[in-house]
Write a structure and sequence with these properties.
With 436 residues, the protein is α/β, with parallel strands linked by helices. The chain has helices at 123-132, 145-148, 173-180, 182-195, 210-220, 240-248, 261-273, 303-309, 350-353, 366-370, 377-385, 389-394, 405-409, 416-435, and strands spanning 23-25, 31-35, 45-46, 53-54, 59-62, 71-72, 77-86, 92-100, 159-163, 201-206, 226-231, 256-260, 279-285, 293-298, 317-322, 329-330, 344-349. It has a 6-stranded mixed β-sheet. Strands 2-8-7-4 form a 4-stranded antiparallel β-sheet, with no helix packed on it. A 4-stranded parallel β-sheet has the order 11-10-9-12, sandwiched between helices. The longest helix is centred in the C-terminal third of the chain and has 20 residues, at 416-435. The chain is globular and about 65 Å long.
Amino acid sequence: MLRTFRIGGIHPPENKLSAGKKITALAAPKQVIIPLSQHIGAPAQAVVKKGDLVKVGTLVAKAGGFVSANIHSSVSGKVNKIDNALDSSGYKRPAIYIDVEGDEWEETIDRSDALVKDCTLSSKEIVDKIAAAGIVGLGGATFPTQVKLMPPPGSKAEIIIINAVECEPYLTSDHSLMMEKGEQILVGVTLLMKAVNVNKAVIGIENNKPDAIAHLTKLAAAYPGIEIMPLKVQYPQGGEKQLIDAVIRRQVKSGAVVQNVGTAYAVYEAVQKNKPLFERVVTVTGKAVATPSNFLVRMGTPINTLIEAAGGLPENTGKIIGGGPMMGKALVSAEIPVTKGSSGVLLLTKEESIRKPMQDCIRCAKCVNVCPMGLNPAFLMKFTIYKDWEKAEANYIQDCIECGSCSYTCPAHRPLLDQIRLGKGKVMGIIRARKS
């Protein structure tokens, strides 16, 4: 029997329209806009100024704290300015504007296709190279990878779990990466294993990707300690706690280090090829999209460039979603740049974008049954509406992973997640203020 997590979950239509589409590398645009906040934690601090010349891979911003990440230029050219730019949150934040001139790369980057398997670096040296390359979690959380590879004092990692689930509907960027860069991913996994001193790793893949399971299983025979584990299709299996529960049957994160499969590939490129994280695979998809595709995209590329490459913006587009339909966010503009956390661009039609009228809660408890964190979303929404922050905290609103399963399953079409997000933000602010 296929494993999955044991609390809640749903199975929305998969709509993997771009599955099987090979990765297409997009040319650099005329200008990139590189935000200084592409990760959880403190924004990076710019180390370039207007007029500076940069190459592909040049460090343009240094990590602004322990939980932060370096940022590198994705193009060669001249820094036009450092100014605020609109990001996926809908707010303007500091960014570096670079006018593209040619495509000159830093000489230290190995651009050959040759696979490099051997690594003589120590655990610390591997972590240091990962930090220098600015690698973050590419599943969407964008947590700086080097921080996750340094367990707190007194704790020890036992296993590396690679999140290759890609449970979000429509998205196929990880799937395409596994099919085309499978061996590089496995080398990346061995580097992660060495970084945290463990001898076992499990790559969890949902069973709707049989080709990727077969491909990696065949390759993994040459990599001792790496297991490919098929998992039942169940959303949100890509959540860290849910994936740990599915793979090793634990409800806590202790002992397991979870990394996205795209992150494992980025680790390979950083450690073995000296290549910083300045590009990633992004899915562009939607039922009205002419050519749903998987693109290799330079960071800072405007999203409208990707949309044009997939056949243009359909006339009946109602919303542009950054990410997938469950956890993605509606974008206020198609000029927002691709960042390290950009896994997909979903174009919803006007018909798909219209919310159904909210009705009264009928106390059916469907939201409770599907919540993967064991919460009561209906109560949390009520506490938020009435600003009862004490009860919201007492009922663990801060544990919500914002997967949207509750809103998806609600027969009364209540905006449960919207309200819970508001309440969660308020409660987290109260908790921070209490600790300061």
